[in-house]
Design brief:
The structure is a single chain. The chain is an all-alpha fold. The chain has 3 domains: 78 residues, NADH-ubiquinone/plastoquinone oxidoreductase chain 6, subunit NuoJ (Four Helix Bundle (Hemerythrin (Met), subunit A), Up-down Bundle), CATH 1.20.120.1200; 35 residues; 36 residues. Helix content is 73%, strand content 0%. Helix 1 packs antiparallel against helix 2 and helix 2 runs antiparallel to helix 3. The radius of gyration is 28 Å and the shape is extended.
Length: 203
């Protein structure tokens, strides 16, 4: 009974916050509602027994992605009038995508548990009581080792490319000369002065 109440609570808040992400006028409020949706989705994953996915939602999506979105939105100079004009212009295309997604959800709900393959797969008990994290780690480092390593290599190349693109030389910025800083001695950097009273310091 408590699990059922928790499911309806998490699901209701998750759907409500997802709707508020779309209809919020302020982009900062949209990101905050997105964080609420992630937290409630993590609660749903805990109820489903997927604790590893729940922790990923909290640590990765809330702790990194959503906070990054929040910082980017707060740092950008967003023209809200231009955003509202773009919404009315792209409204037919957005409604078309929404109808397609709604049709997919209806098909997925109606096809749940239908067919002998799905019924047999859902009725089969787990072979061994292995935790989700251990089973996922076993699959990643045995069967899917090559795709896992390739994904890490692609992310490494993307990170190096982003650093190279942003770290370009500019003429209006004074660079740091490390060797000159190391060679400098305290007696060359400071001066001990004893100015008279009332005259102050002369630079």
């Amino acid at each position: 009974m408590i699990a059922l109440l928790a499911f309806y609570l998490f699901a209701t808040i998750c759907i409500t916050s997802a709707v508020l992400v779309i209809f919020a006028r302020n982009p900062v409020h949209s990101v905050l509602w997105l964080i609420v949706a992630f937290f409630n989705a993590a609660g749903l994953m805990l109820l489903a027994g997927a604790e590893f996915i729940a922790m990923l939602l909290v640590i990765v999506y809330v702790g990194a992605v959503a906070v990054l979105f929040l910082f980017v939105v707060m740092m950008l100079d967003i023209d809200f009038a231009q955003l509202r004009s773009g919404l009315t212009r792209n409204l037919p295309f957005g409604l078309l995508i929404a109808l397609v997604l709604l049709a997919e959800i209806i098909i997925a709900i109606s096809a749940r548990g239908s067919g002998p393959v799905l019924q047999q797969a859902s009725a089969m008990p787990p072979a061994t009581p292995v935790p989700n994290i251990e089973a996922l780690g076993t699959l990643l480092y045995t069967r899917f080792l090559l795709p896992f390593e390739l994904a890490g290599l692609i992310l490494l190349v993307a990170m190096i490319g982003a650093i190279v693109l942003t770290h370009r030389s500019r003429g209006d910025v004074r660079g740091q000369d490390v060797s000159r800083q190391i060679k400098r001695r305290p007696e060359d950097a400071t001066r001990n002065l004893n100015p008279p009273v009332g005259e102050g310091m002369k630079l």
